[in-house]
Structure prediction request, 196 residues.
Amino acid sequence: MNPKIKVVVATNEHIPYVDIILDTIEKAAKVRGTGIARRSNEYVSKKMEEGKAIIALTEENEFAGFCYIESWGNKSFVANSGLIVVDKFRGMGLAKAIKKRAFMLSREMFPDAKIFGLTTGAAVMKINAELGYRAVTFAELTDDVAFWKGCESCVNYDILQRSDRRFCMCTGMLFDPLELKRKDVMEGVSHAIELV
Ligand SMILES: CC(C)(COP(=O)(O)OP(=O)(O)OC[C@H]1O[C@@H](n2cnc3c(N)ncnc32)[C@H](O)[C@@H]1OP(=O)(O)O)[C@@H](O)C(=O)NCCC(=O)NCCS
Prediction:
């Protein structure tokens, strides 16, 4: 990745970037012709204040990319949402760096939570798979009504409603920390077998 771009946990000093972040997300959704769960300026600012957002800036402090995390279902689930990379900074691994940082932050803040995301994008699916997510049906995601309410502002919401929240245009992807533990145990077991 371009070493001149820093990827950091956002704080209140980054609140002046919220307008450009939301504008870039909105424009990108129009270009892609896909839906998004729209967030308000206040919502994203609060994410920054709570240390639940990742921002990428150039050395000259030009906005390059963003993502935030939110917890659902009494903190048993964490979603990484609102991923955006400014056009001219795409294709250099920046989304991957932002998602990685958001993933680490989610693990630090909510170590027992399942981490999930909804996406229609091939790049995001690829990054998620590399981080250990797998594609799941919506039944495996949070049943927190507040999360699904976020989909109301999406152009595809009628599909979600018609399917009784079982499927829509997005693919659900999930990282389960318990599976990681099971994998560690299995690796331990196979290692032990090799040693015998
Ligand atoms: C999707 C998006 C975040 C990708 O940003 P990016 O910085 O260009 O992505 P990266 O350079 O980190 O690429 C990550 C991987 O995805 C691949 N990739 C990137 N764009 C892709 C695309 N359009 N189709 C398929 N794969 C793609 C890259 O080749 C890379 O794989 P590699 O590591 O094997 O080379 C960016 O295009 C964007 O902001 N799009 C509009 C908003 C959006 O779609 N957000 C996601 C909502 S869920």
